[in-house]
Amino acid sequence: MKKICLMVLGSFFFTTLCFAQNYYALVEVLIKNYAGLTFTMNTVTKVPDQETCEKVLSPINQLKDKYQFRTGCVTGPEWEKLFGDTFANKPVSTIYISYKDLNGYETRINTKVLAGPNSSTPGLPVDLSIEKTILWSSAMMEALEKGGIQNARIIYPRKE
Fold this sequence. Notes:
Layout: H1 2-19, E1 23-32, E2 38-47, H2 50-57, E3 68-75, H3 77-87, E4 96-100, E5 106-114, E6 125-126, H4 130-146, E7 153-155
Antiparallel strand pairs: 1-2, 1-3, 2-5, 4-5, 4-7, 5-6
C-alpha cells in the first residue's frame, strides 16, 4: 500500500511539474515624446500563475489617464516558444533590456518607434538607427537603476 501511495504521489508531482506553464504579463504603452515621435514600450514579465500575472498588471491601471496602453496575461506553448530566446537572454531581432523586477520576476523591455502619418506604412513599427537604440537603452538603464533595479543588462540584436 505504501508503494502504491508513493507511486501515485510521485506521478502526480511529475505530472504537475511537466505541465506547469509560465504566464506572461504583457504591457504595451503608446508614448508620444516632446519631439513628436510616437513609440511603443513593450514589457513582458514571466510569472508562475494567473493570479500573480494579474497582480503584476494591476499597477499599470494608474497610467490610464496619462497613456494609452494594452495589457494581458498569456500562457501556453506558443508563448513559451515566442519568448524562449528572450528569457534565455539570447540575441533576437531587436535590442532589449533584461532584468529581474523588484519582486524577483524576470522581465524584458523593448521599444519600437511608429512610422509617422507621411510614411508609406503609417502607425507601423520602424527600425531605429543603432545610435538612437543605444541612447534609448542607456536612458532606460539609468531609469531602472534609479527605480532600484541593479541587475539590468542590454541584450544586443543578433547579426543578420
